[in-house]
Design brief:
Residues 113-314 form the O-methyltransferase C-terminal domain. Keywords: Methyltransferase, S-adenosyl-L-methionine, Transferase. The protein has helices at 7-27, 29-32, 40-47, 51-63, 93-100, 102-109, 111-117, 121-126, 129-135, 137-161, 179-187, 202-211, 247-260, 282-294, 302-311; strands at residues 38-39, 67-71, 74-77, 169-173, 192-197, 218-222, 235-239, 266-274, 300-301, 314-321, 326-333. By secondary structure, the protein is an alpha/beta fold. The chain is globular.
Length: 334
């Protein structure tokens, strides 16, 4: 049987390939192979792995170009496999580790039950995602690294793709560690920023923005965006926030921002904006993860965002494409 032109078979093969990638990422094989080829026994010793089992995984990885055999029982990284090293530009190790993390893997495998019952199995078994990550700091660190790696192209592309000239104050609502805000502030030395997030998040953001060299131009505000957000911004940013919530809660968040906005302020919603037709889009794959992890969180189409923003007293003025099929929805008060 061949996978050529067969999306079902190709997907089935993909599960096995991911299992091998996950093994390589979790054991840190790419880091150990960074300086050149190793025999299976040498690599197993460094990884703390069972050599015969590792040999089978490496043989599989070699079949789709992640490692390459250099001798009868030795392997070396390919350029693709090098992206599974940690701490290197373009690393995908955290992404692979996060999707292979026990609770995440359970969530994806439980999508049929989530769809049957209309409730996320992940939430029922492990609790809300961010509570789970807080209670499991190792997973939380992997998740943070994954989010930064996943967003790197968008972080770097945001100040290039959107014209922030003339903006005095940018308020990053639920700004997390502040990477988006830092990218814009570095590109616009005259701008000042406000990072608004939960009390547990702000100290980490302060450290990150200090490391980025922009903390002196940033005001840090603690709070809950369901209650209120800081006033006085020329531009408000909601990056990867709205997709975490169903329409009712998303409207509450947008309503809080709208109440804080002046008549000439702008809101930027950074999300995947799905096409209204059935054409392929990365956001549709991400949406299934949202279904698994949040249940009610969802990616939305252009028209769905228009409707959602309208309920909060905002109107879409334009949509700007960003790297990685992400998009920036600009909205203004009505």
């Amino acid at each position: 049987m061949t996978s050529e032109d067969d999306p079902i078979w190709e997907t089935l093969l993909g599960l096995s390939r991911f299992a091998s990638l996950s093994t390589m990422a979790e054991l840190g094989c790419a880091d150990h192979l960074a300086d050149g080829p190793l025999t299976v026994a040498e690599l197993a010793g460094r990884c703390g792995a069972h050599a015969p089992s590792l040999r089978r995984v490496l043989r599989h990885l070699a079949s789709f170009g992640i490692v390459e055999r250099t001798a009868e029982d030795a392997f070396v990284l390919t350029r693709h496999g090098a992206r599974l090293r940690g701490g290197v530009p373009g690393s995908q190790r955290a992404a692979v580790r996060m999707l292979g993390e026990h609770a995440f893997w359970t969530a994806l495998g439980s999508v049929p039950e989530t769809v049957r019952r209309g409730r996320s199995v992940f939430v029922e078994r492990f609790g809300p995602l961010y509570n789970y990550l807080a209670a499991n700091p190792d997973s939380g660190r992997i998740f943070d690294d994954y989010m930064v790696a996943r967003s790197l192209a968008v972080i770097e592309g945001l100040p290039r793709c959107y014209d922030f000239s003339g903006v005095g104050t940018l308020i990053d609502v639920a700004g997390g560690r502040g990477h988006m805000l830092a990218s814009v502030l570095r590109a616009h030395p005259e701008m000042r920023g406000v990072l608004f997030d939960l009390p547990s998040v702000v100290p980490v953001a302060r450290e990150c923005l200090s490391a980025e060299g922009v903390a002196e131009r940033t005001r840090f505000v603690e709070g809950d965006f369901f209650d209120a957000v800081p006033e006085g911004g020329d531009v408000y940013l909601l990056a990867s926030v709205i997709h975490n919530w169903d329409d009712a809660d998303a409207t509450r968040v947008l309503g809080s921002v709208r109440r804080a906005m002046g008549s000439r302020a702008r809101l930027l919603v950074l999300e995947y904006v799905l096409p209204d037709d059935d054409s392929p889009h990365l956001g549709k794959d991400v949406d299934i993860r949202m279904l698994a992890l949040f249940g009610e969180g969802t990616e939305r189409t252009h028209s769905e965002y228009g409707t959602l923003l309208g309920k909060a007293g905002l109107a879409v003025s334009r949509v700007v494409d960003l790297p990685g099929q992400a998009a920036l929805i600009e909205a203004v008060p009505v």
